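The authors assume throughout that readers already know how a fold can be written as discrete tokens. The format is easy to grasp once an entry is in front of the reader. For illustration, here is how one protein appears when written out as sequence plus structure tokens:
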Amino acid sequence: MTIIDEAIELEERSLSYYKEAAGRVSDPGGRKILELLAKEEERHISLLSEMKQGGYGPLEGLPLIAEVRGLVEGAVKEGRNAIFTDASIREILQKAMEIEQSTRRFYKERRAATDDEKQKELFEVLAEQETGHYLMVSGLVEYFDRPADWVESAEFGLRPEY
């Protein structure tokens, strides 16, 4: 099994988890976030598959943070005091944090182990994207612990553009 095959397998496991978890939650906001994470994993699989065939497409990710911010802003503007109503979402997001952290570590380790410059570049970009996913998900987990502080956070809060 090649490094690329390992990466595809890892992303497929993550994709499977997010799809399965999205099917378990009743909350539309939680389901949407899990579906967005699944889309990101699908994009990673596509990039890795292209790499396996000798090339790859654009390295930018989906606008995950912007879409999640939109969900948060919508909930706040609607006057809801919670964006999630399904208590199981916290446990699901905790597992998602573990997945994103593990996947990021995988890409960092494989980047250091390969001599292929294109693989190094792709693994670095994917590691950065996984870091972004982790930070976003950990911010959502923080919501359950301190909702008032969370809504005011720099990443998700409602602040005017500079």
Notes: The radius of gyration is 17 Å.
